[in-house]
């Protein structure tokens, strides 16, 4: 008995934000001092390191649950199912619904409950709840759905990942240019007919000394309200942490699946930073003394930025819909999914299509 994906969907917001958008921003350091480099140099460095040229923002009338709803509707339509047959709706996010122009997060009721309501599901035994697990939240939701299905608790689950990071950034912090908005979703169900499905998975939380590599902190502009918090990160420590731990986790997950490295057709990794992701995959293949195959890792961060939990399900939907050149997933292909983020959390799963 396996858990398989029967439908995928995503929602890419229509508002395109190029690097020129930040040309007039006043970027400061942690002490509130103006950065020495001009904004053109800052954005050029960002592009060189992260690969980001554009990102998408939600419209002023949308919140995270709105984006999640659209991705969920697309996944349900793609699966060709009646939403009343869903046993669980799991919504991965980190900041709730933050309305445009405000700083307050709204998480009550849960975003999953809001999506279930908007889908018009009457089945009271369709359980809706949220997952807060940093950027790896969507994968963690998939792992939980897999556990429910394999335990016989559920037959069909909807897992959503959505975020509006544009609502929680400090405009005086150059790291704000990395973040984006978006949503992705997948429908999973029990599979007793063939070999497709989740073959292995793992999760880990490094909290002893690594907990605050991503955190909520005050604005770099000391004149702004000190009680208002924004997403902050220690980029260097995250990079070092990811290179040290993520390749090992990916290897352990692949080894547990029973597949050899040569059977791996695709790696779908959280789109956080192009150079970091390339370094992770290079080190992963070094653990097997094997060169990195061409086109093994699709990247969309150039145009979509880092939308946290939405990056992986959104990317998966794009590949399966044939929207990425040089990338496709065929029947029996083996794909490794992996993510790292706030917590610090790492997770992965191996899937045969």
UniProtKB/TrEMBL annotation:
Residues 254-352 form the Beta-ketoacyl-[acyl-carrier-protein] synthase III C-terminal domain. Residues 129-202 form the Beta-ketoacyl-[acyl-carrier-protein] synthase III N-terminal domain. GO terms for molecular function: 3-oxoacyl-[acyl-carrier-protein] synthase activity. The keyword Manganese does not apply. It comes from the Bacteria. GO terms for biological process: fatty acid biosynthetic process; secondary metabolite biosynthetic process. Keywords: Acyltransferase, Transferase. InterPro entries: ACP_syn_III_C (IPR013747), ACP_syn_III_N (IPR013751), Thiolase-like (IPR016039). The keyword Acyltransferase applies. This is Ketoacyl-ACP synthase III. It comes from Chryseobacterium bernardetii.
């Amino acid at each position: 008995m396996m858990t398989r994906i029967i439908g995928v969907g995503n929602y890419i917001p229509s508002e395109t934000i190029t690097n020129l958008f930040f040309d007039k921003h006043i970027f400061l350091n942690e002490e509130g001092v103006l950065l020495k480099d001009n904004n053109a140099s800052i954005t050029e460095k960002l592009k060189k390191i992260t690969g980001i040229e554009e990102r998408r923002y939600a419209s002023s009338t949308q919140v995270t649950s709105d984006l999640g709803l659209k991705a969920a509707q697309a996944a349900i339509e793609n699966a060709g199912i009646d939403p009343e047959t869903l046993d669980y709706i799991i919504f991965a996010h980190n900041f709730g619904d933050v309305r445009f122009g405000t700083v307050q997060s709204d998480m009550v009721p849960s975003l999953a409950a809001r999506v279930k309501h908007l889908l018009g599901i009457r089945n009271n035994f369709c359980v809706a709840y949220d997952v807060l697990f940093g950027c790896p939240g969507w994968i963690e939701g998939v792992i939980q759905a897999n556990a429910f299905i394999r335990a016989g608790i559920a037959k069909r689950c909807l897992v959503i990942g959505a975020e509006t990071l544009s609502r929680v950034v400090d405009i005086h912090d150059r790291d704000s240019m990395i973040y984006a908005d978006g949503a992705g979703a997948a429908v999973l169900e029990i599979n007793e007919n063939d070999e497709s499905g989740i073959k292995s998975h793992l999760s880990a939380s490094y909290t002893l000394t690594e907990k605050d590599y991503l955190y909520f902190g005050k604005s770099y502009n000391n004149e702004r309200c000190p009680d208002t918090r924004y997403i902050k990160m220690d980029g260097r420590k995250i990079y070092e942490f990811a290179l040290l731990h993520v390749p090992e986790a990916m290897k352990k997950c692949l080894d547990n699946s029973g597949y050899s490295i040569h059977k791996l057709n695709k790696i779908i990794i959280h789109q956080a930073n192009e150079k970091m992701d390339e370094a992770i995959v290079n080190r992963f293949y070094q653990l097997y003394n094997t060169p990195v195959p061409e086109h093994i890792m699709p990247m969309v961060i150039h145009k979509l930025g880092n939308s946290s939990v939405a990056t992986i399900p959104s990317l998966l939907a794009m590949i399966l819909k044939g929207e990425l050149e040089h990338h496709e997933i065929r029947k029996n292909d083996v794909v490794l999914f992996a993510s790292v983020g706030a917590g610090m959390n790492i997770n992965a799963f191996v899937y045969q299509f």
